[in-house]
Amino acid sequence: MTAIWHSIVVYLTAALPLIEGKGAVVLARVLGLPLPLSNVLCIAGSYTPVPFLLYGRRDPKLPLQIFEKLPKTVRRYVRRYGCWALLVMIAVPFTGLGCWLGALFANTMRLDKRRSALAIFVGNALAILLMTGCLSGVILAFRHFFLPGGA
Asked: What is the pLDDT of residues 44-80, one digit of tens each?
């Protein structure tokens, strides 16, 4: 029964802005969920708000204020490469750019919605898999170097 509650908590945490799936991966490891289940929950949870953000009403002021703080090079690459740049921005797990900002960015830049949705999904899945791999490596290294008896 606790595994169900842990799964719900991980899913809902992954749907939160700024934390998203990358932070929920850490939470899933702390709660002891199996890796395949935690990856599926994190990918699904962080992708849940994307259709609402992509196909929702455009707020002309809010996204522009957010993206004015991003470097001009990021905006230039998105204009030039479109959804490929969006995929790469989201796939790098340590940038802080995730599904929420990616969807708002795609909506603001008026990118193709279907391609943007696919790019966000693939970038999100890659980021979560990379985050899981990095976290597993850190845990393994910690066990090996700091715990008696090693891994």
From this structure: 999 999 998 888 776 666 556 666 666 777 777 777 8
Quick: pLDDT tens for 25-42: 989 989 989 989 999 999
> How far, in Å, CA of 38 to CA of 64, rounded?
34
Separation of alpha carbons 50 and 101, rounded Å: 9
Phi, psi of 127, rounded to the nearest 5 degrees: -65, -40
Q: How many of the other CB atoms lie within 10 Å of CB of 139?
A: 12
